[in-house]
Specification:
Elements lengths: L1 E6 L10 H9 L2 E4 L6 H4 L7 E4 L5 H13 L4 E5 L10 H9 L3 E5 L4 H9 L12 E5 L12 H4 L5 E5 L5 H10 L7 E6 L7 E6 L3 H7 L6 E5 L32
Parallel strand pairs: 1-4, 1-5, 2-3, 2-4, 6-7
Antiparallel strand pairs: 7-10, 8-9, 8-10
The protein binds S-adenosyl-L-homocysteine (SAH).
Length: about 260
């Protein structure tokens, strides 16, 4: 007995993996969080498939339904937005399913963090500037463990991707400034990356809160902060060692200039 959890990608139905789509198309039962996953993607399921919207269901209800259907020998897929491994709340489902003797397979998806970078045309790791990306969230109703507060993480001065933080920008800005970030640090925000109503905002730490408010970006937004998001990065000559002609690596011998 098995449930397959599939990453749907950020919104554009073409951004699911080939493997994920195949399993969705073969499924007898499709469960998904409506509003976060595109209807157009769910329509790829077989016409006779049972489609269950989970937004109004609590955890036990969801798991009960899953167990019931797989016990009937049905192929069940649970479709999650982006990649299930980040803020997907899958572990609580997996734990309960395991107790019922149901195994779980996860098919990865394109996370909104990478879809946002793509629509911005940004590389999150720029040689000599930053080689690290932190995926995190601001602390709101959901507490963040000690040592993972934004003001501590921001001390690394790397690229920081903020999920679930669009209503907490005042706090975000304060913590970054407390960590020593300059007010003119570039910040890019993508609302509903890859959806037809996607919006892109390029701003600075100083103007982030006001600009997001004015542009109505208070939900489903990815905030990417740090100098890798500098719009004028092309004017600066950052180069990776990988393509440097003097750099020898596994596939190519470097030549001395
Ligand atoms: N597993 C998802 C994240 C779920 S948490 C993923 O990998 O993307 C929900 C948060 O993800 C939202 O608050 C927002 O910060 C971000 N998010 C999800 N889809 C998005 C999209 N299409 N555009 C921008 N941000 C998105």
């Amino acid at each position: 007995m098995k449930v397959t959890i599939i990453g749907a990608g950020p919104g554009d139905p073409d951004l699911i993996t080939v493997k994920g789509l195949k399993l969705l198309e073969e499924a007898d039962v499709v469960m998904y969080a409506d509003s976060l996953v595109s209807e157009e993607l769910i329509e790829r399921a077989q016409p006779e498939a049972e489609v269950i919207k989970t937004a109004g269901m609590h955890l036990e209800e969801m798991v009960e339904t899953m167990v019931d259907r797989v016990q009937q020998g049905k192929r069940l897929v649970r479709v999650h937005t982006g990649d299930p491994a980040v803020y997907g709340a899958i572990m609580e489902q997996v734990t309960l399913l395991k107790k019922e003797g149901v195994s779980v397979e996860v098919i990865p998806g394109v996370s909104s963090v990478f879809a946002s970078a793509a629509v911005l045309g940004a590389e999150l790791t720029i040689p000599d500037l930053t080689q690290t990306v932190i995926l995190t969230r601001a602390e709101g109703r959901t507490p963040v463990p000690e040592g993972e507060k934004l003001k501590d993480l921001a001390k690394h001065h790397c690229t920081i991707a903020l999920f679930l933080s669009a209503t907490l920008t005042k706090k975000v800005v304060k913590e970054f400034i407390d960590a020593g970030w300059s007010k003119d640090t570039p910040v890019a925000v993508v609302y509903k990356a890859t959806w037809p109503d996607q919006k892109i905002l390029r701003t600075t730490l100083e103007n982030l809160d006001e600009d997001m408010r004015v542009n109505g970006m208070r939900k489903q937004s990815m905030i990417l902060a740090g100098w890798a998001l500098d719009e004028h990065i092309h004017d600066k000559d950052y180069r990776s060692k990988l393509y440097d002609k003097e750099f020898t690596h596994g596939f190519r011998r470097g030549v001395k200039a």
